[in-house]
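Show me any protein, keeping tokens residue-aligned.
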Amino acid sequence: MAVLTADIDHYVNAFNSGNVPYFASTFNDPATQTEYQSVLVQVPGSLAPGAKSLVNINLLGASSTKLKGAKVVSPHATSSALAAAHQHLSAAPRQLSADGKPVLVKVHRSFASSDLSRDVTYFENVLQGHKEYADDSVYGGKMITSDTVFFRYVHTTTPTQGPVSIAAWEEYQVNLHEGCFDSANNQGFDRLADNHFGHALGNVALDAYIKGQKASGYPYRFYGQPGGGSRAFFYMYAPNGWGCQVIGSCTDSSLCPSIQDGGYGFCTQGIKGHCSVDGASHVAI
């Protein structure tokens, strides 16, 4: 997740004082030739001390007195995304949090891709997104025109330095979902591999997303709005293993199941051994 801040040095100081490792680099915005400073940080996990997560945060800033990062040729964000983020930042109601942290503005959500064509097809046909920019290795777009956050897919032919390739990791996540979701019966949940982002659609109907997901052949799941109601939480899983939670209602009621309650039991659903069957909604201890 890339974010823009007016004071990247504040966070560099915090990382240095906390012994948090990061990768620093610089790049030029092709449109303005502004040099940006970049800090890439891996977010800690929560399962065990020292555990890492899948999520990386890329902090971007237009100036720094602390960083001496290496110059990279490929920009970490596009000119249009940076311009939108600067506009959002300048319109923010405050520049600092209550405890003095500089405001962060979201720029894009980026995915490493083993198959750019596959991911672009899913983004446009299932997530109903549209292209904002693209070249041979990078594609960026928005799910809805009014969105301020871009989605970005990046492909490289360079072999991974890690123990698992991007393609193998994507396949691993997809196989986990396939084993845990029973979409036809709206059951199952892959709790420990539920890596997803969310998008409240406002007045946009769920119909096209549901039809697109069904046509893709990948798993999905409905949950109701907490406390009841006609709005649904539709979880849809992509060929790269990541999920998307879209929130809205169905114009065609036949597409959404009848849902009376919302949420799910973290203690009873998505557990190894029976993740394809929902457990009891309440557990007596």
In short: The chain has a mean pLDDT of 89.
